Structure formats: C-alpha cells, structure tokens
Amino acid sequence: NARFKLSHLKRIGLGMIVAMASLLCAFFVERLRQAGTPEHIHEYVSDSNLTVSSVSIVYQLPQYMLSGLAEVLVVISALEFAYYNSPYSMKGFSIGLVYTISGLAGLVSFVLAIATAALDPSLVFQPGSSSFGHVDRFFLIMIGLVFVGTVLFSLAARRFQAEPERVF
Fold first, then answer.
1. CA-to-CA distance for 66 and 22, rounded, in angstroms?
2. pTM (2 decimals)?
3. 62-74, pLDDT tens digit by residue?
4. Is 43 helix (H, G, I), strand (E, B) or coil?
5. DSSP per residue, 62-79
6. H or E segment to which residue 102 belongs
7. How far apart are CA 160 and CA 8, in angstroms?
8. Do 139 and 6 form a contact (C-beta atoms < 8 A)?
9. What are phi and psi of 71, to 5 degrees?
10. CA–CA separation, 47 vs 58, rounded Å?
C-alpha cells in the first residue's frame, strides 16, 4: 500500500503545528485591524455607541479553518491513540481522560486570558476603545505556549513505541 501514513502521535504533533499557524493568522488579522482605517465605524446597539473595525470578517476564515483542522488532528488522533493503545478494561477511562484533558485545556486558556487581562489590560479586547487593545501580543504569547507544548509533546512522543499493526 503506497498511501501516506501518519501515526497517531505524528498527527497530534501536526495538529499542534497547525494550531500555531491558526494563531499566527489571528495575529496578522489583528495587526491588519490595528493598521486599518483610522476612522472606525460607529454602531448603535441597544442605545450604546460601539466602535467597530472596518476590516472584513472574511479575513478570519483562514484562522478558523486552521483552528478546526488542528482540533480534528489533535482530538480525533488522541481519541484513536487512547482507544488503540489501552487495554480493553481501560478503554472507556482512557477516552474519558482525553475529553477531560481537552476540557482542562479550555479552562486553562480561559484562566490565562483572565490573568493576562489582570496583568496588562491592553492585551485584551476593549470594546468602545479606539485602539481595541493589543490582542496581537496575546496571540504571540499563545503561539509561544503552544510551541513549548509541541516541543515537550515531541520529546515525550519519541519515547513511545507503537505496535506496527496499530499505526494507520
């Protein structure tokens, strides 16, 4: 069979790299928004005057497409890895552990966003402000954290020896 095959761990690593690419796209979209026209658009919503950017939402498509691809590569591959590499009596627990880790990752990212806002309010989106903050710097921090996680994951994954029939 001449198909291109990647192991579960390689797909997870690839997904982490795609996640960094998604964050890099978000960084560039934020920079584009900051460099956009100096006159922002004013919207009136529920008797509030909101300042919005003139950059089209279409520019966000690549980052969301890459983010979705990264999610599929990481989570689906992690589920397959947990299922195929755990004993029969532990399969349910292993899959539950993958979902728990995924949920904890979301919680950590939420806490990180709150902590970042507390340390430096300019790093978060500020509705009504003409500058909207410096969310681009937050994306750089996230890229750095994902990079460190990818390196640590790669080091750990190299130590794992999968059985040949379970790699597809």
1. 5
2. 0.80
3. 999 999 999 999 9
4. strand
5. HHHHHHHHHHIIIIIHHH
6. helix 91-119
7. 11
8. no
9. -60, -45
10. 27
